[in-house]
Amino acid sequence: MREITYEQAGTEAILEEMRRDPRTFHLATDAPPPLLAEFGPQRVRATPIAESALTGIAVGAAGSGFRPIVNWSQVTFAFVAMDQIVNQAAKIHYMFGGQVTFPMVFRAQVGGGTRRAAQHSQSPYSMFMNVAGLKILLPSTPADLKGLLKTAVRDDNPVISFESGRLGGLVGPVPDGDHTIPLGKADVKRAGTDVTIVAFAWLVHEALAAAEALAAEGISAEVVDPRTLVPFDVDAVRASVRKTGHLLVADEAGPTAGASAEVAALVTEDPETFAALRAPVRRVCALQVPIPYSPGLEDHVFPDRRKIADGVRAMLSGARAA
Question: Is 120 an annotated catalytic residue?
Fold first, then answer.
């Protein structure tokens, strides 16, 4: 077990998978020095700033027996490749009648906190959740990023790894050896009995801080980290809610048609879980606005540990009053 940063964990995952399988290669507008030093310019390509082109190259290469890894950097840059992602990568295995696999991994930074204003502070993963044929990661720790990313590279389907920009320097333990994590397996980051907090990416850490504050008040919060959005571990979330009777979803994205809404629907549409609820589901999300550049305004827009704790208190207060 070693302590490394979130960013280092992602790099390690790619290094190890490129060593393991010579069919893997890397495309990005910048060639990462650690990858370039080990594998050279044939397998680590610095491309023009043309995400539609490098994404399309990945689709063709995947269908030709290779396993490309594409780093879009900011998720904003993926928007210029939406045809290649939505119409090609996500659907091509199906449209070929399953005769050819198209393994490819796309990486993109999401979220705010880095003071990069509206275009570079987005969390639009729900847009991609709506597209059948894509698997989606949203890891919150160095260990989860490394384990999920290694699994993604070995998967025979297109996978998008959304990685929080706030977490790049986060240090955490990562197991030694060939550390992999199956997709679709949530992790209970903290056990509790009074309320379930389902949190995504950076907000997992804010939820854990909120749970610590709530514990001092006698409130036991369970923090569930889905880790992957597609596939989603519905059973783990429902089991937690059936135990606690309360659900709060914390998401750095806006609430409208978001991942938080999907979690709420998955819980409330199940008769047994719905019957266990002792209060309405509550969401703590970013405001539905473009992200401001002003640090004070940006902090106001996003949820944090205080807003999560306040949401739990309000939910439990209403339930107890009833």
Answer: yes
